[in-house]
Design a protein that fits this description.
single chain, 7-stranded antiparallel sheet, globular, 5 helices, about 260 residues, Glutamine Phosphoribosylpyrophosphate, subunit 1, domain 1
């Protein structure tokens, strides 16, 4: 099973402690890794079809001073599509003048809906095909640029469709919010003042967040399995979607329309 990592914060935040925890799991997930993080409307995107334990790109990322309010990372254990750069998550597309980033953990069987718009897969994974379909359907559902609430309503309608074909744990971000959908396994942690210390679950590495934050800071982390010990990770339920905005889970407004 692949491993996902997402971060959403109310101010640009260092994600390297969490990324270090994710990278320790690359021994079992050696078919590629990737990380994408937003800087305002811009996006930095690093991927490699080599594992995060051995990749020189991973070493570059570990030395890069990442400060972002939306991050999506992935380490791959291939199920569909060969081990190759074009099949490495996260995938990126443009819609409504914004970059969209998508990473998937799971395996979809027989989900090959027709793609007839501007979104076509480059590689051969079920994940990228599902992402292209999702972007296509979002574009069809909204005549103009939608709000976060409107996007969330549409996603709540769309995401169960591919999930019927297998496991569909995913992270999706447009640099404004982070959407997380659980099919089988995802966990969420929200950090806020007063911040404390944390230790990685898979490596003897600790950090005292109180020394690097202000009382106004908020950070939400999403991971396949908890990355740290002694913190209050919440298991998402199968079929649950969360909208993370400003470092916390927000409730999307009521969906007042039905797509035809």
């Amino acid at each position: 099973m692949c491993q996902l990592l997402g971060m959403n914060a109310n101010v640009p935040t260092d994600v390297m402690f969490s990324f270090a925890g994710l990278a320790t799991r690359a021994d079992e997930h050696r078919d590629g890794f990737g990380i994408a993080f937003f800087e305002d409307r811009g996006l930095r995107h690093f991927i490699d079809h080599h594992g995060a334990r051995t990749s020189p790109v991973a070493e570059l990322v570990k030395r890069y001073p990442i400060k972002s309010d939306n991050v999506v990372a992935h380490i791959r254990k291939a199920t569909q599509g060969r081990v190759a750069l074009e099949n490495t998550h996260p995938f990126v597309r443009e819609l409504w003048g914004r970059y969209w980033v998508f990473a998937h953990n799971g395996d979809l069987k027989g989900f090959m809906p027709p793609l007839h718009g501007a979104f076509r897969p480059v590689g051969g994974t079920d994940s990228e095909h599902a992402f292209c379909w999702l972007m296509q359907e979002l574009a069809k559902a909204h005549a103009g640029v939608p709000s976060i609430d409107e996007l969330s309503c549409t996603l709540r309608e769309l995401l169960p469709l591919p999930a019927r074909h297998g496991s569909f744990n995913l992270l999706l971000s447009n640099g404004q919010a982070l959407w997380a959908h659980c099919s089988t396994q995802l966990h969420v942690l929200e950090r806020a003042h007063p911040f404390g210390a944390a230790t990685l679950a898979d490596e003897d590495l600790s950090v005292d967040f109180a020394a690097h934050t202000t009382p106004q800071d908020r950070v939400a982390i999403v991971a396949t399995t908890p990355l740290t010990q002694g913190e209050r990770w919440q298991a998402m339920q199968p079929g649950e979607m969360r909208v993370l905005l400003g470092g916390r889970t927000v409730a999307a407004g009521p969906c007042s329309w039905v797509r035809g």
